[in-house]
Amino acid sequence: xxKKTYNVAVAGATGVVGKEFLKxxxxxxxxxxxxxxxxxxxxxxxxxxxxxxxxxxxLLDEETFKGVDIGLFSPGASVSALHxxxxxxxxxxxxxxxxxxxxxxxxxxxxxxxxxxxxxLYKNKGIIANPNCSTIQMVVALKPIHDRYKIKxxxxxxxxxxxxxxxxxxxxxxxxxxxxxxxxxxxxxxxxHRIAFNCLPQIDSFLDNGYTKEEMKMVNETxxxxxxxxxxxxxxxxxxxxxxxxxxxxxxxxxxPIDPDDVRKLLKSAPGVTVLDDPKNGVxxxxxxxxxxDDTFVGRIRRDDTVPNGLNLWIxxxxxxxGAALNAVQIAEILIRDYL
Length: 340
Ligand code: 3JN
Description:
This protein has nine helices and 13 strands.
């Protein structure tokens, strides 16, 4: 018989994504039996609010997953590496928000609007991977275009909010702005350089090929989610002084002739997408409008006539919601509807 409620654990509950998980579970009235909030030693012992109760945050250890149906993980890749397989062994289906398992061929990498069928593969290892935030919003908007026109090549540049780097980076941006207005030297710590009134063309560390790990996540994850190794992707990822909401400037080339009006129509009926595209009246997506919203917003849709079938778009989404917690909860909703 189907369960009425499910026991859920949130690992990394005190982080920015952890807190977003709680907000979204509450908003969407996820049918929770028991909710276990888990964190490292540093944060265990504190309390977080859920549905009007102040729930204790417990230490993430080997015992914590007994009797848990679904684990929503965002504790950092090394913690997931250790605890996700343990949780899965205890019978909990883990939806992991870190990069740890994304490229494991036995573990599905899922965006519900794009490849919900891959969720069935959770049975392989008891783990489902949630893609990187920058990848998620890009594939949500490009999936309908890929299905109709077949995308050959994607050139993407990102403008990523500091919340993607965690609460320390958010505090650092605030503190640096205050310092600069008070003629004090801004303190740099959470990000590689000063972020206030600046742009940093580095997210995560550099690899030998000259790209950052964040850039290569976008390349490799897109191929896996689209199940298409032939699609060419090249990325430049940039941190900008915005608190919430990642933006992306995207150029695509397609096999079939592509028409901007057609794309606008197509995207208007695409799941999880809102088209905001009336540039003459100043209408296009911006992070300040998109923070706290569920959809992926698309604007500035226009032809690139420097190549035979080219198109430019501007895509913005809340990196903590669709880019992380919301995507994972949507996966959990399909899991309980179709599998658990
Ligand atoms: O910086 C951003 O905007 C997104 C950051 C993602 C991130 C940060 C640290 C570690 C990840 C990720 O989700 O890929 C990871 C990781 O899990 O490797």
